[in-house]
Structure formats: C-alpha cells, structure tokens
Amino acid sequence: MRVVYEALGVARSHVHALRGRPHAWQDGRKSRMPREDEALVGEIKAQIADLPSYRYRRACALVNRERKAASLPRVNAKRVYRVMAEHALLLPKAPKRTASSRRHDGTVAVTTSNTRWCSDGFEIKCDSGETVTATFVKDCCDREIMAWRAWAGKGLPGEPVKEMLIEAVERRFGSVEGVPSQRVEFLTDNGGAYIAADTRRIARSLGLEPINTPVCSPQSNGMAESFVNTFRRDYLSRMDLTDARTVMAQLPAAFEHFNEVHPHSSLQMRSPWEFRRELRDQRRLEIPALNCE
Predict the structure, then answer these.
(1) 137-169: b or e for each residue (b if 16 or more CB lie within 10 Å)?
(2) Given 147, 182, 240, 248, which residue has the most CB atoms within 10 angstroms?
(3) What residue ranges do the domains of the chain occupy?
(4) Quick one: average pLDDT of 146-174?
(5) What is the three-class DSSP state of 90?
(6) For residue 104, is pLDDT > 80?
(7) Per CATH, the architecture of 116-284 is what?
(8) What are phi and psi of 20, to 5 degrees?
C-alpha cells in the first residue's frame, strides 16, 4: 500500500483520517468569517503611537497586556502581523549585520537573578554640540536596569560608577551589608572606570566580583551592548536632543519605561518589573519559580 500512496502523492495518515470522517463532515475553515479588525487596529495604533520603533511582536505584547487588565481575550501575534501589514504599520526589515570573524560561544545570560550583572557606558550627541555620557547596571537574568548615572561631558569617570554600584546593591539587597555570601559577578568591558583599582576595590567590598571581557571582544558583554542598541533605537530616536540639560531631563522616564513597559523576548514578552512582580507573587503562593530570582 505504501507504494500506491507514494504513486498518488498522498500520505497514509491523511487517507486514514478521511476514512474515519462521518458523511456529514464539513470543513469549518471554509465557512469561517474573518474577525473585524477595526478595533484591533485602534488598539495597535494606540500602543505604537509613542513607540514607533516597536515591531509587531512587542506591539502584540502591549495589546495583550491591556487586554489582560480589561479581562478581554488575548490576540494572536500572527493576527497582529497580518493586521499591521494590511494597514502599513510594519517597519521595514532591519539590514542584516555582517557576522563577526571572532568566534563567540559564551553565554552572558543566567537563569538566576543576582548571579551576574553587566554594565557599559555610551555617549549621546546633542544638537548643541554637547555630549551626555551615561552608564548603567543591568541584571543578566531579569534584565532590570537597577541603577544608572549620566552627566554632561565625555569620558567615563570612576566616581559615578562607584556610586551606581552602591545604589544597585542597596536596591537589590536593602543595604550594602545584605549581599549574599556568594559573590555577584560584575561583567564589564575594559574601560578605565571599570578596571581602575579603586572601582574594583569598592566592587569587592560590596560583594561583587569584577570580571572584564577579553580585549577587542565586545560580544562577550553582549547583553549590555544589546541594551545600548535598544536604548538608542527605541528611546534616543524620539528624544529632544537640543542640549545636555534637555537630554538628561528625559533619561529618568526612559529608564523607567524600559523597566516597567518594554516587553523582552527572553522574559516571554514581559517587562523586567512585570517579570519580577510575577516571581514574587509565585513565591508568596509557594509555586516553583521560573528559574529566576
């Protein structure tokens, strides 16, 4: 029989399913009416009005977040893609990046919070010719930006980095004495502010273990590099860059938006704070955590 099925170009499983169907069977897909999309279009436009760089998956996550709060059914990401495509709301595909010749098999992400933190610095060019330099500390599990610093000027001095580390430790552990016995890895590049002896001393006194990436290997700190790209694409692209004072006034809202609203694919399209709140609720109910926290 297998030879017959192959000659006819049909699968045996399909023939078996056809034989098992009742005579009154009808294909419900042919008579199914498409859903009205006008309401969904309005929901999508409301979410991406201030976030024009968000693609369909993040737009879908934001729509479903609002629907969950209103006790409405979720919408499928494929439907969101179709609707956005029909109404010219999709962004053009990003150009493919040239693959690096350096092989990188390491993994920066971890499965438990407060196991590894990462940091990086970046510059923001203002229309006035001024430069704002910013740095941040990010958890490599839940992706929260725990602390950040910014100032008008070029270069990354050590003092803001040390203040930032103290704030991050106090935010996560309540005080600088609350760090667990197992040290938290602090992953950075080889910038002068990070490799300075005083910075490393402060980090170790806070319960952190400074780790620097290999020279000329930025992908080894890929999570911090990725955040910089995200920040430039989703936040700096819509900021008022008139001068340093104007830029710095907008940074607190941008970092808070990333923590509270920004859907992250590795967190099942939840924001860092949303992810951490759900974990805390699960621990209160004594439900096994999702490999984090």
Answers:
(1) bbbbbbbbbbbbbbbeeeebebebbbebbbebb
(2) 147
(3) 36-86, 116-284
(4) 93
(5) coil
(6) no
(7) 2-Layer Sandwich (3.30)
(8) -85, -5
The whole-angstrom separation of Cα 143 and Cα 225 is 13
- Return left, alpha or beta for 207; rule: phi > 0 is left, psi -120 to 50 is alpha, else beta: left
Q: Rounded to whole angstroms, how far apart are CA atoms 31 and 35?
A: 13
Query: Where in 113-243 does DSSP place strands (E)?
Result: 116-125, 131-139, 145-152, 184-188, 208-212
CA distance 252 to 174: 21
Burial class (CB in 10 A: 0-12, 13-18, 19+), 249: exposed
Report yes or no: 58 and 91 within 8 Å, Cβ to Cβ.
no
The pLDDT mean for the chain works out to 88
Assigned token pair, 72 = 């409405």
pLDDT tens digits, residue range 206-265?
999 999 887 766 667 889 999 999 999 999 999 999 999 999 999 999 999 999 999 999
Q: Quick one: pLDDT band at residue 123, thresholds 50, 70, 90?
A: very high
